[in-house]
Amino acid sequence: MSEVIWTALALVFVLEGLLPFASPAAWRRVFEQALRLTDGQLRFLGLASLLSGLALLWLFGP
Fold first, then answer.
1. Per residue in 22-62, pLDDT tens?
2. Which is more confidently placed, 2 or 48?
3. What is the pTM of this model?
4. For residues 26 and 19, what is the distance between their CA atoms, to the nearest angstrom?
5. Using CA atoms, how far apart are residues 54 and 58, in angstroms rounded to an integer?
6. Could you give the C-alpha distances from 17 to 11, 13, 27, 49, in angstroms and in order?
């Protein structure tokens, strides 16, 4: 079980690093836009991301 968690965490780092590596200018624009969002908007995006991840795990998980 521990190995699966470390693998998942490593995959998160890989995916998170793709945009800044491939297109730093686009990543900077996205980050600047994120700074302009309100707390409520950020919470909604976080919730949407969390629920999407859970749905994917439910659909394709073990």
1. 999 999 999 999 999 999 999 999 999 999 999 998 999 87
2. 48
3. 0.73
4. 8
5. 6
6. 10, 6, 10, 17
